[in-house]
Amino acid sequence: MHHSVKFVLAAAALGFATSASAQTKWDMPVPYGDTNFHTQNIVQFAEDVKSATDGGLEITVHSNGSLFKHPDIKNAVRQGLAQIGEILGSRLSNEDPIYEVDSIPFLATSYDDAKKLYDASKDQLAAKLQEQGLQLLFSVPWPPQGIYTQKDISSVDDLKGLKMRAYNAATERLAQLAGSLPTQVEVPDLPTAFATGRVEAMVTSPSTGANSKVWDFLSHYSDAQAWLPRNMVFVNKAAFDALAADQQAAVLEAAATAETRGWEASVKETMEKTQVLKDNGITVTAPSAELKEGLAAIGAEMSAEWAEKAGDEGKAILEAYQN
């Protein structure tokens, strides 16, 4: 027994001696494809880490759910099957309402407001992840969600009675509060659903609009900036803590750079994809004062409902954001 202990200690000492030159390899599953701006930003992050650590830490990005599917990524990182990963934050709303603060409709309706909301909620988000052995590294928003229809919408009343696409509890509630009829439709089925009148309105980003070629089946886009849902990147805390101090610093610095770069890329994506909509004949409008007011009222109601669910923590986030 004593021999084996001595042997382990000797091996450990040897390990420390060579760890400076040893290479650490991390796997990073992400849900979106290589052409997605989130994925491109993450590939750049991995390159930044590699060069800052002189190749000491190498992160391999596995895009498009190729290593783990979207619903499995968080648990894979938690269990150490992968060391680092990315998900859409609001997917975890069934675990805790804090994760869906970025998806309350009409609470934060610009990049500036979305950043303020993120700043107001970041500590709580990080704490929730920390409880599960995960460390938040950075978070980047998708383009804001707008309203797609087959006619001009100048007030919330114009949405009454329309069949509106819903894809989660929040979009279903939004449709209800607007007096619309929530209808579940997946993205691939949208063209047929609009063509047959099964759905008449939807709230989604300019990216999804352009990628779905919405001009084939609808005519109007109101740039309502309903909400800016965020992806988040987190690392297995034990894997991070095992890094040398200079490597930890390199990861945190690359993460801060990636966050700034990602927000800028999102703004650019919004402008480019909105232009694609215009170029293909979609009537793109800013919401009228009346529509904005009506949507803000829905937002206030949904914020209150969310705060009820999220308790004191949720109320604290909303207060910090509103001040």
TrEMBL record:
CDD domains: PBP2_TRAP_BpDctp6_7. Pfam families: DctP. Coiled coil: none annotated. Residues 1-22 form the signal peptide. SUPFAM superfamilies: Periplasmic binding protein-like II. Keywords: Signal. One of its GO terms (biological process) is transmembrane transport. It comes from the Bacteria. This is TRAP-type C4-dicarboxylate transport system, substrate-binding protein.
